[in-house]
Amino acid sequence: MVKTIGNPLSWGAAVLSDAGHAIETAAENIGSHDPALPEIRPLTLADIRMALRKGVDDFAHFRSDVMVMVLIYPAIGILLAFMAFQQNMLHLIFPMAAGFALIGPFVAIGLYELSRRREAGETVNWAQALAVFRPAVAGPVLVLGLYLIALYAIWLYAAAWIYQVTLGPELPSSWRSFTTAVLTTSEGYAMITIGLAVGVVFALLVLFSSLISFPMLIDRRVGLPVAVAASFRLARQSPRAVCFWGLTVAAILIVATIPVFLGLILALPILGHATWHLYRAAVRFSD
Fold first, then answer.
1. What is the pLDDT of residues 34-86, one digit of tens each?
2. Which key words tag this protein in UniProt (predicted)?
3. What DSSP designation does 38 have?
4. How far apart are CA 278 and CA 231, in angstroms?
């Protein structure tokens, strides 16, 4: 039967109906219908080495596809740094760069999907990775992502406040004067100490709540509460390995941001793929 073009009203009604069903499906999957947690296996340092090794292997396999996906992140970092220079916000450049560790688990969701599909033996490319936003997954993933973005915003606000109570209230007039004040004055040392302490709190919140929750939400329709609870349980069962993973991620991202954020082109995909394999090493489902 030959298809004909419907009138705009019927077409619009169909689009709205499909969108409504998608939103309904996304909302239904935010909650956990089965509150039972999967089996959580304690992690070891050997598991972390294995995950990083497989992360590098996935990156080598998907190299061209991954490059298309992650080029936007160095561009965002450069844009933020440029804005900071133009708006006389030099004191926020380091907090902005450090904040990549807070939103990293969310921006890497396409990488988890690539690793999942490769593990399943499917042929994949960067465009298919966008299937991660299917309605059954989009709801809980976006809610958890908004939580990380909110933490990033609060972190920047906290960093600005720390500067105000230490080196402020005057804004730095130049990069040289700001660096001199930070490294040679008691107020600068206080800013570094307080900033690091507060930053560790934010980093631990993100680490414990999103360590394996994003990959689990992509892999199974478990709902947001179960995924986050499983991530916290893993952190409680394997504090040494989890903290070592957090320090490894932080160190790699700090080094990656030094060459004008360009190192993120390598760091983000390797860490993203490695996170998927860390999840697979830690979680066992009954089926």
1. 567 889 999 999 999 999 999 999 988 877 556 655 666 666 666 666 665 55
2. Membrane, Transmembrane, Transmembrane helix
3. P
4. 11
Residue 1 has pLDDT above 50, yes or no: no
**Residue 171 and residue 91 in contact, taking contact as beta carbons nearer than 8 Å:** yes
Which residues constitute the domain of residue 143? Answer: 8-284
Rounded CA-CA distance 140/127 in Å is 21
| Chain segment 148-198, per-residue pLDDT in tens | 999 998 998 999 899 999 988 888 877 788 888 888 899 989 999 999 999
Above 60 in pLDDT, residue 10? no
Does 100 reside within a domain? yes
What is the residue type of 166?
T
Domain count, the chain: 1
pTM over 0.85, yes/no: no
Give how far Cα 154 sits from Cα of 95, 151, 160, Å.
Answer: 11, 5, 10
Which 3 state secondary structure label does DSSP give 152?
Answer: helix
Amino acid at 53: R
Task: Pick the more confident residue, 283 or 259.
Answer: 283
Kindly tell me the sign of the dihedral angle through the C-alpha atoms of 104, 107, 109, 112: negative
Q: What residues contact 222, with CB distance under 8 A and at least 6 apart? A: 32, 34, 38, 216, 230
Task: Please give the Cα distance from 109 to 272 (Å, whole number).
Answer: 8
CB atoms within 10 A of CB 285: 10
What are 151's two structure tokens? 């933490």
Position 159 in a domain: yes
DSSP designation for 1:
-
- Judge whether 110 lies within some domain: yes
Inter-residue contact 252 to 271 (CB < 8 Å): yes
**Rounded to an integer, what distance in angstroms lies between the CA atom of residue 13 and that of residue 272?**
39
The answer to whether position 2 is within a domain reads no
